[in-house]
Amino acid sequence: MKRIFATFLFVGLLINLSAQKTDYPEISLPLDADSKLITYSQVVEAQANKDSLYAKSLAWFNAYFKNPTGVIREKSPENGQIMGKHQIKVLNPPDKKGIQTMKGIVQYTVKVSVKENKTRIILTDFNIRDNSYTPIEKWSDKSSVQFNNVNYYYLEQIDKEAKELVKNFQEFMIKATTVKKDEW
Q: Residue 97's domain is classified under what CATH number?
């Protein structure tokens, strides 16, 4: 009787575990050659001087982020640099009822540098907000004890958000600036 019960229990657990396992496609994120950190970078060329590109970059921060004063940490018009910290909410896969819970918050650094006729944006230093600094590069390390296939689901969300941000920046910087005439 005990053997039959143990067998049913074991088979039930196996069925339950296999039903919950989902394979997520592997995702490769851009890694910086030197730092080995996930890094998104884009250079945008525009026919403008350094000061006007700096002003336009600052205008992008103010237009893109809901709370730009909470994001921007350093502004240096002299050096043509703006540095900020932002975060992405990462969700767990939907459960059986389709409800998604939050995995955590991933923080990252956004840097904009300008010089004559060029602007560059860099997103780097991605880390999960936790008690200690935990870089998300560990999520894609298959040799890590903490590796799980669901990590690709989380990395895909981060990749999508980062690419959207870089694309928005590029489009904003290329778009011609319209000057309103003060006609009365």
A: 3.30.530.80
